[in-house]
Amino acid sequence: MKKKIFLYSFVALFITIKAHAQEHYSAYLFTYFTSGKGGEHIRFALSKDGYHFRALNKNQSVINSKDISATGGVRDPHILRGADGKTFYMVATDMNTEKYQWGPDSGMVLMRSADLVHWTSKVVNVPLAFKKFAGVNRVWAPQTIYDEQAGKYMLYWSMRFGNEADKIYYAYANKDFTGLETEPKQLFFKPDGGACIDGDIVHKDKKYYLFFKTEGSGAGIKIAVSDKLTSGYVLRDTYVQQTKDPVEGAGTFKLNNTNSYVLMYDMYTQGKYQFTRTNDLQHFTRIDDQVSMNFHPRHGTVIPITAKEAARLSAEWETPEDVLLSAGNKQIKSINITFNDAEKKLYLPVVPGTDLRSFDPAFVLFPGVTVSPSKPQNFSNGPVKYTVTIAGKKPDVFNVTAQETHNPALTGYYADPEVLYAEKTGKFYIYPTSDGFDGWSGNYFKTFSSPDLVNWKDEGKILDLPADVSWANRNAWAPCIIEKKMDGKYQYFYYFTGAQKIGVAVADDPAGPFKDSGKPLLAQLPEGVKGGQQIDPDVFADPISGKTYLYWGNSYMAVAELSADMLSIVPGTTKILTPTKTYNEGTYVFYRKGTYYFMWSENDTRDPNYTVRYGTSKSPTGPIEVSEHNTVIAKDEKAGIYGTGHNSVIQVPGTDDWFIVYHRFNYPKGITMGDAAGYNREVCIDKLDFNTDGTIKQVTPTHAGIKPVLLRSNK
């Protein structure tokens, strides 16, 4: 009986300890670097659930690379909790691409901390430390794992001699974590002789899973598995990333209190991260729609941390701005929040229909941080005072305003909007470029529907270049659409840019899905044109002649008549109409009261002075007359609105009411982003008015936008 009581007590104690251990970690720390100037420094972000991350220190560095590296830059930070549970180890590539481009890169930085705030560091230059490796010119993406059998910390990284393929090596760190005490040995190489980089080892169920990126042969992330940490890895010859875009920098972490793991990786050509979830490290499911970040990380790693550790990090690096900008209510237009520390003001724009009489901003609070009041407040009468308290810091009081705005009209980053009223459905539709991708590298199209030009519904993807188009898989830009009734049926012809060519896809519903014709409609410059791109199509049905025309061009404006089936150009009808020397792109044509209006954008879409201008004609094929005062819409510096351009126009059926749909830089951050503002744009709508002589009144861009349009059919 005593033995049974002892056994039961031991089991109960074990269960209690295990449960306590599972509850021990209640947050996550993400360490990463970023792209762009000044990006190659270590940054931290926190999360309570492993899905929603918020940057600390306003997304600025928490460790300055100049203080720890030989080059003045670091990349690929990997963080590890030590075997003792209280010491932390971090390693990073010693690399400064701003100063030295891509090499040679022969060093790594070893760091150690007892509190996640204060770090000691040491640079290890592999060729200098080991004569055998004097020919090494790449030492990339180091990581650390504790070898239980050896009782030491093992570093592993990819390394290259000369022009040979990259292989993954390992060595043991010395006791102080200030250098390598063993000569590097080869850990893994690709059997086909191709390169492999960015190793990440996960220990699960007595097996070691080595994630790595194939480099130079194939593309993506594969896994090799072994029963031993330092040898015997067998390749699983399948890619595990859940995208067709190039990826690198695999990072894996276990979700607290679950048996699930998250595999994340850097979609470096898209400027985005992708997150996947798995229980067996073999089958992975995308969870992008569940993940949010207020920063754009590059190759980083995540570890679980305690509430006490999270509070320590918040006290050191979180600011009232970080706290207030975390407002997570889904009715807030999160990318348009404005914060003014000097005036102690926060402005929260909300979507149409939000009840401001009882509204909770839903601030994300980490341990050691409080915000009061904590319950929903009445914002309908003006600002509400909120007090932010961060442990160890003086409380700050802010005036918080929540207000309904209609610009941007769409939630998220979109550009080059084409607007359509569909007779079939009695709704309006916007067809934009999917934006927010570095270098305009988006590869799919979506559409949005609305009964009133204010309340917009995301109808989802309507055309995915990699999946649906055989002749182009990149640069999905600037579409246009037209509704045609053929043989008693509505047909929708969707002209789009892919890989700097113009194609056409067809659907029998304005929300798609659309089927590509199978080949580009336009793939070469028009005869006599020596520069520019085949982009930015615009389709126009002439109400006078009954003919349909396609306009296109970048640095030139071309027009051609479309065939009766809308799938080809009528031979011999192409004509160059370039109206002015400042013409750049984004042609849009419409007809009103006997006049053909031609609109276009001048300057570059990355330029704050991106502006819409117009000319008129008596014919859809020109010539175009341009008056001295021909600005349609331009920036408004006082309102903080820049880069207004690439528009379309909509006439409300049965009326002479017109609206302009255009894109602008993201507000308020766009103007601070340099060239990146040109691919972080948002769609807006404002009223378009005419003078009595038919000339266009210059539009003042607004944040308020327009009021809902009531169609006669809905009255």
From TrEMBL:
InterPro entries for the chain: Glyco_hydro_43, Glyco_hydro_beta-prop_sf, Glycosyl_Hydrlase_43_Enz
Annotated protein name in UniProt: Beta-xylosidase
Pfam families linked to this entry: Glyco_hydro_43
Record's signal peptide: 1-21
Record's keyword annotation contains Hydrolase: yes
One GO term (biological process): xylan catabolic process
Keyword Oxidoreductase: no
CDD domains, per the entry: GH43_Bt3655-like (cd08983), GH43_BT3675-like (cd18828)
Protein family (similarity comment): Belongs to the glycosyl hydrolase 43 family.
GO molecular function: hydrolase activity, hydrolyzing O-glycosyl compounds
Keyword annotations of the record: Carbohydrate metabolism, Glycosidase, Hydrolase, Polysaccharide degradation, Signal, Xylan degradation
